[in-house]
Amino acid sequence: MPSVLFVCVENSFRSVMAEALFNAIAPPGWRAHSAGVDARGKSVNPLAFSLMEEIGIVVTKTHPRQVAPEMMKEAWRVVTFGCLDRCPAGAAGKNEDWPVPGSPGKTDEELRAIRTDLQARVEDLIRRLPK
After folding, report:
1. CA angle in degrees (0–180, nearest 5) for 13-80-39
2. Global pTM value
3. Distance between CA 47 and CA 25 in Å, rounded?
4. Which alpha helices (H) appear in the chain, and where do they start and end?
5. pLDDT for 7-66, tens place per residue?
6. Could you say which DSSP state residue 67 is in?
């Protein structure tokens, strides 16, 4: 099954939401996964769950995952959030970086704006998937 991999630093907010957004509207046969370059945390940021629930998407991921070379290799596209230089090899030629801020210090309004930005970027990515 073709896949997209979303990678942020901790795999606790942006990449988790992008994965959920993609999987909610992905065309048949496509799937998204997410991981982090430094996924040492024990849990996903609860804000990711509540922001997705506000728009009717339930996030079931319970813990951050560390990105691995085989994940990069298997993905059709690797989307990073400013951390490509810390990813394992394997994204060359199939990566894009999205300049989306993280959650620390953001107001509720700013967090919703991040979600809206991610939605638009995911929708654009889906339009660009090979048929």
Report:
1. 50
2. 0.94
3. 21
4. 14-25, 46-53, 69-74, 108-127
5. 999 999 999 999 999 999 999 999 999 999 998 888 999 999 999 999 999 988 779 999
6. -
Question: Which domains are delineated in the chain?
Answer: 3-127 (3.40.50.2300)
Q: What confidence tens digit (pLDDT) does each residue in 83-105 have?
A: 778 777 778 889 999 999 999 99
What's the token pair of residue 84?
């490509």
Distances (CA, A) of 2 to 76, 78, 83: 6, 12, 23
Q: Which residue has the tokens 């430094």?
A: 38
| 5 vs 104: CA distance, rounded Å | 23
Whether 26 and 7 have beta carbons less than 8 Å apart is answered as no
